[in-house]
Design goal:
single chain, 10 helices, six-stranded mixed sheet, 6 strands, Uracil-DNA Glycosylase, subunit E, 40% helix
Length: 288
Amino acid sequence: MNQDVSSQIQALLKQQIESWGQAGLTHISRSEEIFEDKIPVQEEITSREETKTEVTKTFVPGHSVPDQPSLTTSSESEPNMKKPAKRLEPRTTKNRDSLKKRKEELELLRKKVARCKRCKELASTRTQTVFGVGDPNASIMFIGEAPGADEDKQGEPFVGRAGKLLTQIIEACKITREEIYICNILRCRPPGNRNPSPEEADSCREFLDGQISIVDPDYIVCWGSVAAKNLLDETLPIGKLRGEFHEYGRAKVLCTYHPSYLLRNPPAKKDVWKDMKFLFKDMGIKLK
Ligand code: URA
């Protein structure tokens, strides 16, 4: 290459790198990074899952209605930094009318949950109920265990330390929290960060099933063995439930390790990444 052209290219590259630096970009991350134990250690332990000591018990992008593309990725606001996710065809059964209906039905159910006093202890100790968030038309639903302290305070599932890791996993899959639906086995925080009792899980089941039936996802991911065992009525350990699809109604169910387990056992992140690849492959999306 001619010397002049080569130095012009170098100057342009330098300029580009400097402008990224000015915009606050310190490095360009790869999806795998979160699975390579690069999660910063956080000093404060506030949410229930972080205080547990026992070993874990275990996108599709929201189907946007035609001409309302909800399957945007953060990469679209940061051109040239991340590869955009492949868009999936919207499911024909999920159209604009059904989105409105699903929103209304979820709102009715949310109000019912907010009044619930079935579990006396939980109703008297909670700050608020934690219903669920995300796209009412999502084709992926994530189910966790129960709200922790942060979720109880903020009224949203997975917002604590484990939730931040979950968000990183979601983003590594080139999707956003808004494109999936996230809820838990329980809608109230069990005091002292204890596991949900079978009675509590039973009492809350009507609400979980209501959310599943309204959102009607193609895929459900059970994060942790409490979610997997309760949803599927399984007794096998989470390690044995991974690696294949189970069924719940018409949804394919994938079980994987809970993010709080990953915080305690970072090497297990590579297994979760494997599970995410398995899930997305089934949806026709190759994760790198
Ligand atoms: N852990 C869960 O299982 N659910 C939450 O909402 C938060 C932490």
